Amino acid sequence: MATNHKIIIGDSRNMAEIQDESVQLIVTSPPYWQIKDYGNKNQIGFNDTYEEYINNLNQVWFECYRVLDPGCRLSINIGDQFARAVTYGRYKIIPIRTEIIKFCESIGFDYMGAVIWQKMTNMKTSGGASVMGSYPYPRNGHLAIDYEFILLFKKLGKEKNNVSKAIKEKSKLTNDEWRQYFKGHWNFSGAKQDKHLAMFPDELPRRLIKMYSFVGENVLDPFLGSGTTSKVAKELKRNSIGYEINKEFLPIIKTKIGSNNSLFEGRDKIDTFFQNNTIAEKLNFNLKLVKNDSLMNNRIKHSDYWKELKSKLIQ
Ligand SMILES: C[S@@+](CC[C@H](N)C(=O)[O-])C[C@H]1O[C@@H](n2cnc3c(N)ncnc32)[C@H](O)[C@@H]1O
Predict the structure, then answer these.
(1) Owning domain of residue 28
(2) Beta carbon of 230 within 6 Å of any ligand 1 atom
(3) DSSP label at residue 296
(4) What's the domain count of the chain?
(5) What is the DSSP letter of 30?
(6) What is the tens place of the pLDDT at every residue in 205-255?
(7) Is residue 209 assigned to a domain?
(8) Looking at residue 166, which CATH number applies to its domain?
(9) Rounded distance between C-alpha atoms, residue 10 and residue 308, angstroms
Protein backbone atom coordinates (compact mmCIF):
# COMPACT_ATOMS: atom_id res chain seq x y z
CA MET A 1 0.00 0.00 0.00
CA ALA A 2 1.48 3.36 -1.07
CA THR A 3 1.41 6.14 1.50
CA ASN A 4 1.57 9.98 1.43
CA HIS A 5 3.87 12.14 3.53
CA LYS A 6 3.65 15.92 3.77
CA ILE A 7 6.48 17.89 5.30
CA ILE A 8 5.35 21.44 6.03
CA ILE A 9 8.03 23.98 6.82
CA GLY A 10 6.05 26.37 8.94
CA ASP A 11 4.55 27.26 12.29
CA SER A 12 2.18 24.72 13.81
CA ARG A 13 0.37 27.38 15.81
CA ASN A 14 -1.58 27.58 12.59
CA MET A 15 -2.15 24.43 10.61
CA ALA A 16 -4.37 25.98 7.92
CA GLU A 17 -3.02 23.42 5.44
CA ILE A 18 -4.93 20.69 7.29
CA GLN A 19 -8.69 20.35 7.09
CA ASP A 20 -10.86 19.99 10.17
CA GLU A 21 -11.21 16.40 11.39
CA SER A 22 -8.86 14.88 8.84
CA VAL A 23 -6.18 13.40 11.14
CA GLN A 24 -6.60 10.19 13.13
CA LEU A 25 -3.58 10.38 15.47
CA ILE A 26 -1.15 13.02 16.72
CA VAL A 27 2.25 12.01 18.10
CA THR A 28 4.62 14.74 19.22
CA SER A 29 7.23 16.05 21.60
CA PRO A 30 7.12 19.82 22.05
CA PRO A 31 10.21 22.03 22.15
CA TYR A 32 11.84 22.44 25.55
CA TRP A 33 11.38 25.64 27.50
CA GLN A 34 14.54 27.76 27.25
CA ILE A 35 17.18 25.04 27.33
CA LYS A 36 17.43 24.22 23.61
CA ASP A 37 17.86 26.58 20.71
CA TYR A 38 16.32 25.04 17.59
CA GLY A 39 17.76 27.84 15.49
CA ASN A 40 14.71 29.81 14.33
CA LYS A 41 13.53 33.16 15.64
CA ASN A 42 9.87 32.09 15.63
CA GLN A 43 10.47 28.85 17.51
CA ILE A 44 8.43 28.15 20.61
CA GLY A 45 10.28 27.92 23.91
CA PHE A 46 13.80 29.21 23.67
CA ASN A 47 13.19 32.92 24.14
CA ASP A 48 9.84 32.65 25.89
CA THR A 49 8.88 33.47 29.44
CA TYR A 50 7.02 30.58 31.05
CA GLU A 51 3.69 32.31 30.34
CA GLU A 52 4.53 32.82 26.68
CA TYR A 53 5.77 29.25 26.33
CA ILE A 54 2.58 27.74 27.71
CA ASN A 55 0.36 30.06 25.65
CA ASN A 56 2.29 29.25 22.48
CA LEU A 57 1.95 25.52 23.10
CA ASN A 58 -1.75 25.99 23.84
CA GLN A 59 -2.24 27.48 20.39
CA VAL A 60 -0.79 24.29 18.93
CA TRP A 61 -3.05 22.06 21.07
CA PHE A 62 -6.00 24.18 19.96
CA GLU A 63 -5.14 23.46 16.33
CA CYS A 64 -4.58 19.79 17.13
CA TYR A 65 -8.09 19.62 18.48
CA ARG A 66 -9.51 21.14 15.28
CA VAL A 67 -7.74 18.77 12.86
CA LEU A 68 -8.26 15.56 14.86
CA ASP A 69 -11.15 13.22 14.11
CA PRO A 70 -13.59 12.65 17.00
CA GLY A 71 -12.69 9.66 19.15
CA CYS A 72 -9.01 9.89 18.12
CA ARG A 73 -5.86 10.43 20.21
CA LEU A 74 -3.41 13.22 20.84
CA SER A 75 -0.20 11.89 22.46
CA ILE A 76 2.41 14.25 23.87
CA ASN A 77 5.87 13.21 25.03
CA ILE A 78 7.02 15.62 27.72
CA GLY A 79 9.49 15.41 30.57
CA ASP A 80 9.89 17.45 33.71
CA GLN A 81 12.36 20.31 33.62
CA PHE A 82 13.81 22.03 36.61
CA ALA A 83 14.71 25.57 37.56
CA ARG A 84 18.11 25.94 39.17
CA ALA A 85 18.66 27.65 42.46
CA VAL A 86 21.23 29.97 40.86
CA THR A 87 18.74 31.34 38.35
CA TYR A 88 15.39 30.96 40.10
CA GLY A 89 16.41 31.46 43.71
CA ARG A 90 15.52 27.93 44.71
CA TYR A 91 15.49 24.51 43.07
CA LYS A 92 12.08 23.66 41.68
CA ILE A 93 10.36 21.34 39.21
CA ILE A 94 8.47 23.08 36.42
CA PRO A 95 4.96 21.66 36.04
CA ILE A 96 4.64 21.88 32.23
CA ARG A 97 2.58 18.71 31.87
CA THR A 98 0.00 19.90 34.38
CA GLU A 99 -0.55 23.00 32.24
CA ILE A 100 -0.98 20.85 29.14
CA ILE A 101 -3.48 18.57 30.84
CA LYS A 102 -5.51 21.47 32.20
CA PHE A 103 -5.65 23.28 28.88
CA CYS A 104 -6.42 20.21 26.77
CA GLU A 105 -9.24 19.22 29.10
CA SER A 106 -10.65 22.74 28.86
CA ILE A 107 -10.92 22.60 25.05
CA GLY A 108 -12.71 19.27 24.88
CA PHE A 109 -10.15 16.51 25.20
CA ASP A 110 -10.52 13.76 27.77
CA TYR A 111 -7.24 13.03 29.57
CA MET A 112 -6.65 9.26 29.29
CA GLY A 113 -3.60 8.98 31.56
CA ALA A 114 0.10 8.88 30.90
CA VAL A 115 2.75 6.31 30.17
CA ILE A 116 5.89 6.70 32.24
CA TRP A 117 8.81 6.23 29.90
CA GLN A 118 11.74 5.10 32.01
CA LYS A 119 14.98 6.31 30.52
CA MET A 120 18.19 7.91 31.62
CA THR A 121 17.76 11.53 30.70
CA ASN A 122 20.96 13.29 29.84
CA MET A 123 21.82 15.94 32.39
CA LYS A 124 22.29 18.59 29.72
CA THR A 125 18.87 18.11 28.14
CA SER A 126 16.32 18.11 30.93
CA GLY A 127 18.61 19.21 33.70
CA GLY A 128 18.61 15.90 35.60
CA ALA A 129 21.68 14.44 37.30
CA SER A 130 22.22 11.34 39.39
CA VAL A 131 23.52 13.04 42.54
CA MET A 132 21.95 16.36 43.29
CA GLY A 133 21.15 18.61 46.20
CA SER A 134 22.46 17.98 49.70
CA TYR A 135 24.16 14.63 48.97
CA PRO A 136 25.00 12.65 51.11
CA TYR A 137 22.89 14.27 53.83
CA PRO A 138 19.14 14.68 54.27
CA ARG A 139 16.89 16.65 53.52
CA ASN A 140 17.45 18.30 50.28
CA GLY A 141 18.43 15.57 47.85
CA HIS A 142 16.67 15.83 44.50
CA LEU A 143 15.02 13.06 42.48
CA ALA A 144 16.83 12.03 39.31
CA ILE A 145 14.80 12.97 36.26
CA ASP A 146 15.26 9.62 34.55
CA TYR A 147 11.77 9.36 33.05
CA GLU A 148 9.42 11.23 30.76
CA PHE A 149 5.68 11.14 30.26
CA ILE A 150 3.54 10.33 27.28
CA LEU A 151 0.29 12.16 27.93
CA LEU A 152 -2.74 10.65 26.21
CA PHE A 153 -5.84 12.62 25.24
CA LYS A 154 -8.98 11.60 23.40
CA LYS A 155 -11.10 14.01 21.40
CA LEU A 156 -14.71 13.67 22.44
CA GLY A 157 -17.39 12.85 19.91
CA LYS A 158 -18.65 9.96 17.90
CA GLU A 159 -15.96 7.96 16.14
CA LYS A 160 -16.39 7.65 12.36
CA ASN A 161 -17.08 4.02 11.73
CA ASN A 162 -15.26 3.70 8.42
CA VAL A 163 -12.53 1.11 8.94
CA SER A 164 -12.96 -2.00 6.80
CA LYS A 165 -12.54 -5.49 8.18
CA ALA A 166 -9.48 -6.03 6.01
CA ILE A 167 -7.78 -2.87 7.34
CA LYS A 168 -8.65 -3.86 10.92
CA GLU A 169 -6.94 -7.19 10.38
CA LYS A 170 -3.85 -5.51 8.88
CA SER A 171 -3.64 -3.22 11.91
CA LYS A 172 -4.03 -5.94 14.54
CA LEU A 173 -1.52 -6.03 17.41
CA THR A 174 -0.02 -9.31 18.58
CA ASN A 175 -0.72 -10.44 22.15
CA ASP A 176 2.83 -9.56 23.15
CA GLU A 177 2.64 -6.10 21.61
CA TRP A 178 -0.66 -5.39 23.35
CA ARG A 179 0.64 -6.48 26.75
CA GLN A 180 3.87 -4.53 26.37
CA TYR A 181 2.42 -1.34 24.89
CA PHE A 182 -0.56 -0.90 27.20
CA LYS A 183 1.57 -1.16 30.35
CA GLY A 184 1.84 2.06 32.32
CA HIS A 185 5.64 1.91 32.15
CA TRP A 186 7.84 1.72 29.08
CA ASN A 187 11.51 0.83 29.27
CA PHE A 188 13.74 1.66 26.34
CA SER A 189 16.54 4.10 25.88
CA GLY A 190 16.43 7.51 24.24
CA ALA A 191 17.75 8.25 20.76
CA LYS A 192 21.38 9.11 20.13
CA GLN A 193 21.25 12.85 19.43
CA ASP A 194 23.40 12.82 16.31
CA LYS A 195 21.15 14.39 13.65
CA HIS A 196 19.00 16.75 15.67
CA LEU A 197 19.23 17.96 19.25
CA ALA A 198 16.05 16.50 20.69
CA MET A 199 14.91 13.36 18.87
CA PHE A 200 12.80 10.62 20.34
CA PRO A 201 13.65 7.01 19.42
CA ASP A 202 11.63 5.23 16.68
CA GLU A 203 10.18 2.92 19.31
CA LEU A 204 8.10 5.73 20.83
CA PRO A 205 6.02 6.66 17.74
CA ARG A 206 6.03 2.99 16.66
CA ARG A 207 4.14 1.94 19.77
CA LEU A 208 1.70 4.87 19.68
CA ILE A 209 0.96 4.47 15.97
CA LYS A 210 0.26 0.77 16.39
CA MET A 211 -1.87 1.35 19.50
CA TYR A 212 -4.01 4.19 18.21
CA SER A 213 -4.25 4.16 14.42
CA PHE A 214 -5.20 1.89 11.54
CA VAL A 215 -3.17 1.21 8.41
CA GLY A 216 -3.79 3.95 5.82
CA GLU A 217 -4.79 6.61 8.39
CA ASN A 218 -3.20 10.05 8.83
CA VAL A 219 -0.68 10.69 11.59
CA LEU A 220 0.38 14.26 12.44
CA ASP A 221 3.42 15.58 14.27
CA PRO A 222 3.23 19.38 14.80
CA PHE A 223 6.88 19.43 15.98
CA LEU A 224 8.52 17.16 13.42
CA GLY A 225 12.19 17.87 14.28
CA SER A 226 14.25 15.27 12.43
CA GLY A 227 11.18 13.48 11.02
CA THR A 228 10.99 10.43 13.33
CA THR A 229 7.17 10.28 13.42
CA SER A 230 6.86 10.41 9.62
CA LYS A 231 9.59 7.82 9.16
CA VAL A 232 7.84 5.34 11.43
CA ALA A 233 4.39 6.18 10.02
CA LYS A 234 5.72 5.29 6.57
CA GLU A 235 7.18 2.02 7.81
CA LEU A 236 3.83 1.14 9.37
CA LYS A 237 1.88 2.04 6.21
CA ARG A 238 0.25 5.15 7.64
CA ASN A 239 0.23 8.58 5.95
CA SER A 240 1.88 11.46 7.75
CA ILE A 241 1.94 15.24 8.04
CA GLY A 242 4.71 17.01 9.91
CA TYR A 243 5.32 20.67 10.75
CA GLU A 244 8.81 21.97 11.39
CA ILE A 245 9.66 25.63 11.79
CA ASN A 246 13.34 25.38 10.92
CA LYS A 247 13.94 24.76 7.22
CA GLU A 248 17.54 23.76 7.98
CA PHE A 249 16.16 20.45 9.27
CA LEU A 250 14.63 19.61 5.88
CA PRO A 251 17.58 17.55 4.54
CA ILE A 252 17.66 15.58 7.81
CA ILE A 253 13.92 14.94 7.61
CA LYS A 254 14.12 13.87 3.97
CA THR A 255 17.00 11.50 4.64
CA LYS A 256 15.18 10.02 7.60
CA ILE A 257 11.88 9.45 5.82
CA GLY A 258 13.79 8.10 2.83
CA SER A 259 12.47 7.72 -0.65
CA ASN A 260 12.57 3.97 -0.54
CA ASN A 261 9.54 2.51 -2.25
CA SER A 262 8.51 -1.03 -2.58
CA LEU A 263 8.71 -2.13 -6.19
CA PHE A 264 5.73 -4.34 -5.66
CA GLU A 265 3.40 -2.11 -3.67
CA GLY A 266 3.62 1.22 -5.48
CA ARG A 267 5.48 4.39 -4.68
CA ASP A 268 5.16 6.29 -1.43
CA LYS A 269 4.73 10.04 -2.03
CA ILE A 270 6.79 12.56 -0.09
CA ASP A 271 6.03 16.28 -0.62
CA THR A 272 7.45 19.40 0.95
CA PHE A 273 5.45 22.60 1.39
CA PHE A 274 6.45 26.01 2.66
CA GLN A 275 3.90 27.95 4.64
CA ASN A 276 3.26 31.21 2.78
CA ASN A 277 2.51 34.75 3.88
CA THR A 278 -1.20 34.30 3.53
CA ILE A 279 -0.90 31.58 6.09
CA ALA A 280 1.21 33.84 8.29
CA GLU A 281 -1.48 36.54 8.12
CA LYS A 282 -4.09 34.00 8.97
CA LEU A 283 -1.84 32.88 11.80
CA ASN A 284 -1.80 36.35 13.32
CA PHE A 285 -5.53 36.56 12.95
CA ASN A 286 -6.05 33.19 14.59
CA LEU A 287 -3.62 33.99 17.37
CA LYS A 288 -5.63 37.07 18.23
CA LEU A 289 -8.76 34.98 18.30
CA VAL A 290 -7.21 32.38 20.52
CA LYS A 291 -5.53 34.91 22.77
CA ASN A 292 -8.83 36.67 23.35
CA ASP A 293 -10.54 33.45 24.07
CA SER A 294 -11.29 32.94 27.71
CA LEU A 295 -9.98 29.39 27.38
CA MET A 296 -6.48 30.84 27.26
CA ASN A 297 -7.05 32.12 30.75
CA ASN A 298 -7.75 28.66 32.00
CA ARG A 299 -4.26 28.46 33.38
CA ILE A 300 -2.64 27.35 36.57
CA LYS A 301 -1.80 30.39 38.65
CA HIS A 302 1.88 30.91 39.31
CA SER A 303 3.54 33.72 41.22
CA ASP A 304 4.54 36.70 39.07
CA TYR A 305 8.22 36.00 39.54
CA TRP A 306 7.73 32.50 38.28
CA LYS A 307 5.66 33.55 35.26
CA GLU A 308 8.12 36.16 34.10
CA LEU A 309 11.31 34.20 34.61
CA LYS A 310 13.37 35.05 31.56
CA SER A 311 16.87 34.04 32.49
CA LYS A 312 18.08 30.73 31.14
CA LEU A 313 17.55 27.64 33.26
CA ILE A 314 20.87 26.12 32.33
CA GLN A 315 23.90 28.23 31.56
C1 LIG B 1 11.67 18.27 20.68
S2 LIG B 1 11.92 18.67 18.98
C3 LIG B 1 11.07 17.38 18.15
C4 LIG B 1 11.97 16.21 17.81
C5 LIG B 1 11.27 15.05 17.10
N6 LIG B 1 10.34 14.35 17.98
C7 LIG B 1 12.31 14.07 16.57
O8 LIG B 1 12.28 12.88 16.93
O9 LIG B 1 13.20 14.50 15.81
C10 LIG B 1 10.86 20.05 18.76
C11 LIG B 1 10.92 20.66 17.37
O12 LIG B 1 9.89 21.67 17.29
C13 LIG B 1 10.33 22.68 16.39
N14 LIG B 1 9.50 23.87 16.61
C15 LIG B 1 9.62 24.83 17.56
N16 LIG B 1 8.63 25.75 17.45
C17 LIG B 1 7.85 25.35 16.40
C18 LIG B 1 6.67 25.86 15.78
N19 LIG B 1 6.08 26.98 16.24
N20 LIG B 1 6.13 25.19 14.73
C21 LIG B 1 6.73 24.07 14.25
N22 LIG B 1 7.86 23.54 14.77
C23 LIG B 1 8.41 24.17 15.85
C24 LIG B 1 11.82 22.83 16.74
O25 LIG B 1 12.53 23.44 15.69
C26 LIG B 1 12.22 21.37 17.01
O27 LIG B 1 12.77 20.78 15.85
Answers:
(1) 4-305
(2) no
(3) G
(4) 1
(5) P
(6) 999 999 999 999 999 999 999 999 999 999 999 999 999 999 999 999 999
(7) yes
(8) 3.40.50.150
(9) 27
pLDDT band for position 123 (50/70/90)?
very low
Q: Is the CB of 223 under 6 A from ligand 1?
A: yes
Q: Is the CB of 13 under 6 A from ligand 1?
A: yes
Residue 312, domain member (yes or no):
no
Q: For residue 311, is it within any domain? A: no
- Pocket probe for ligand 1: among 245, 255, 256, 286, the residue whose CB has the most ligand atoms within 8 Å is 245
Q: In this model, does residue 277 exceed pLDDT 70?
A: no
Q: What is the number of the ligand 1 atom nearest to the C-alpha of 200?
A: 8
Query: Does ligand 1 lie within 6 Å of residue 275's CB atom?
Result: no
pLDDT tens column, 142-182: 998 899 999 999 999 988 888 999 999 999 999 999 999 99
- Answer whether 205's CB lies under 8 Å from 27's CB: yes
Indicate whether residue 198 lines ligand 1 (CB < 6 A): yes
Q: How far apart are CA 229 and CA 24, in angstroms?
A: 14
Confidence of residue 282 (pLDDT cuts 50, 70, 90): low
Give CA angle at 150 (145, 154), nearest 5°: 155
